Amino acid sequence: MTAPEGPEKAEDHPATGILVFNKPSGVTSRKMVDYVARLISCSRVGHAGTLDPLASGVLLICVGRATRLVENLQSLPKSYRTVIRLGGRSDTLDGDGRIEFEPSPRVPSLSEIEEAFLPLLGEQIQRPPAYSALKIKGQRAYDLARAGQALELGPRSVRIDRIAALHYEWPLLELEIDCGGGTYIRSIARDIGETLGCGGFVEALVRTRIGPFALEQAIDPQALSSGSIRLHLRPALDAVPALPRLVLDASQLEAVAHGRRLSIRDLGELPIAAGRVALLDNQGTLVALGELDPEHGRLQPRKVLI
Fold first, then answer.
1. CA-to-CA distance for 91 and 114, rounded, in angstroms?
2. Which residue has the higher pLDDT, 144 or 184?
3. Domain 81-207 maps to which CATH number in 3.40.1280.10, 3.30.2350.10, 3.40.390.10, 3.40.50.2300?
4. Superfamily of domain 13-75+213-238 in the CATH hierarchy
C-alpha cells in the first residue's frame, strides 16, 4: 500500500484484525486467504491453521499486523466434529484419497470403539498424514506425496483432551474431539481404525472452535464484500485471550513501537511477576506482546503491532 497524501482519513488506516470464517468444504485454506486479500486490497493476509479441502468450519484469517499473531492463534485449543468411516483405509486418511475397503471387516461394538479412544487421550506422539501441509526441505508434504514419493513423516507431540462418540451406526462413527494445536483428526481416525483392526478414515470434518472463536460466530465468506469486510474484523487482542494485560502511557508506547525495553520500576502495578503479557494503549488496543523479566528488571517487547 502506498502512503496517503495529505491528512489521513479513518478509512486510510491499514486494516488489522482477525476474520472468523466458516470455510466451506471443497475449498483450500489458501484460496480463502487469496479471496480476503483481493477484497481488502492488502498483501499481509494469512490463515492460522490449515483446514483440509474436505473440511469445513472455523478458519481464522489474519489481516495486516495481526498476521504477527498467527503462531499464537495456532497454539489455541481446538474442537471438531467428524464422521469416521470404519472398514476401509485411505492414502490421504480421508474420503478424498484412494480408498481400499476391507472385504469382510469385523464390526466392533460401541464399547469396543470407546475403549479404543483411551490410549489416544492426553499428551501423545502422533504420526502426521503423508498428505499434509507440513514442510520437508522447503516443500509441502502433500506435493511430494502426490508426486509419488514415499513419505514417513516424523512423529509430533500433540495433546488430545476429549473424544466423545455422538452417534454410531456401522460403518459411520460420529465423534466430537477437543485437542491442542497441531493435532491431526485424520491421524486419530486412522489410529482408531487400526486399533479396532478394521481401518478408518475421515469422511466429514467440521472445526467448531479455535480458542474463543466459535462456529456460531463465523461468517459465510460469500456474504462479504470489499465494503463490509472491515466491519467483521475482530480485534487482534482476541488472539491472546489468556494473557494478562498491561496498559502503557504515551512515552512507553513510543518506546515499544521502536522495540525498546522498558524498566519494570516505571510500570507501576504489574498483572504478573514474570512471563508474557499483552501490552495495550489507553483505548484497549493490543500494541505488542512483551515479556516481563524481573531478574533483569525489564519488560522486553517481543511482537510489536504498531
1. 25
2. 184
3. 3.30.2350.10
4. Pseudouridine synthase (3.30.2350.10)
Helix axes 185-196, 110-117, angle to 10 degrees: 130
What is the arithmetic mean of pLDDT over 103-117?
96
Task: Tell me the backbone φ, ψ of residue 54, rounded to 5 degrees.
Answer: -65, -30
Q: Which fold has domain 243-304?
A: 2.30.130
DSSP annotation of 11 reads G
Distances from the Cα of 30 to the Cα of 35, 36, 209, 274, angstroms: 9, 10, 19, 38
| Catalytic residue list contains 52 | yes
Per-residue CA distances from 219 to 60, 69, 85, 179, 222 (Å): 10, 20, 29, 23, 9
Q: Are 257 and 306 in contact (CB under 8 A)?
A: yes
Reported pTM: 0.87
C-alpha–C-alpha distance, residues 211 and 76, integer Å: 5
H/E segment holding residue 206: strand 200-210
Strands 56-63 and 200-210: parallel
Q: Would you say residue 6 has pLDDT above 90?
A: no
CA 181, CA 245: separation in Å to the nearest integer? 23
HSE on the CB side for 167, CA within 13 Å?
7
Give the Cα separation of 20 and 281 in Å (integer).
24
Pick the range with the lowest mean pLDDT from 118-132, 214-228, 276-290. 118-132
Residue with C-alpha cell 478509512? 11
Q: Of these residues, 52, 94, 191, 238, which one is catalytic?
A: 52
Q: Give dist(CA 163, CA 161) in Å, integer.
A: 7
